[in-house]
Amino acid sequence: MEEAECAVAAVKGTVGATATLAALPSTVARIVAPALTALGAEHPQLAVTCLVTDQAQLRELALGTVDVVLGQRYHHLPETSPKGIAVSPLLDDPLLVVTAADRSDDRPVALRELATRDLVVPPATTDCGQAILHACHQAGFTPATRYVTADIAAQLALARAGLATALVPRTAIDPGTPGIRTAPIEDHPILRLLFAATRHTETADPTTSAVIAALRTAARQGPLADLPPAKRDAT
Known about the structure:
The protein contains six helices and nine strands, in the order αβαβαβββαβαβββα. The chain is an alpha/beta fold. It folds into two domains: about 120 residues, Periplasmic binding protein-like II (D-Maltodextrin-Binding Protein, domain 2), CATH 3.40.190.10; about 90 residues, D-Maltodextrin-Binding Protein, domain 2, CATH 3.40.190.
């Protein structure tokens, strides 16, 4: 039925009236909000429902509960995408080391340096938590996780107070945030790929294609647009 609907929509070449997008909280301010604003201007008849969740809803995508997922995959972790899912890469987004503004400079940091620091990290059950733990093990140490939270605002608050060092995706950090300092990881970079995913169909659906195009444009015009690609760990 979906294949037939996509074929009819493709022939008409028209964007539909509704779509459902699932997105990670860390992508809302810098990618999702600009994309939805642009979509509203270009396709005013399209109403997008946005579900903000800590985990990319690829399973719900496969079941048909959502139409587009703005998800993430860490380059140094195995890929685990369900069958029947079409993935469009959007942006490579590195995690930055975040500290209080008066505690360090902005020089690149070797991940091994964090072995002696108290860290605030997401739970190990999350994609980001797994990625940080795995990267630290690759660097030869087990991190001292003093605080555990997936709330990026809480992570930044703890870093700003000088209570912990955080590892936060660059797109989730407002450059104007006061009281913090950010630095790249130079030896074992933790790099996530942000992607837009849809159910695979033989014929492209104009509605989901419009949503993905808006997400791609917002990602290209975001805070990483003028920066060189992050160096990936060769191991």
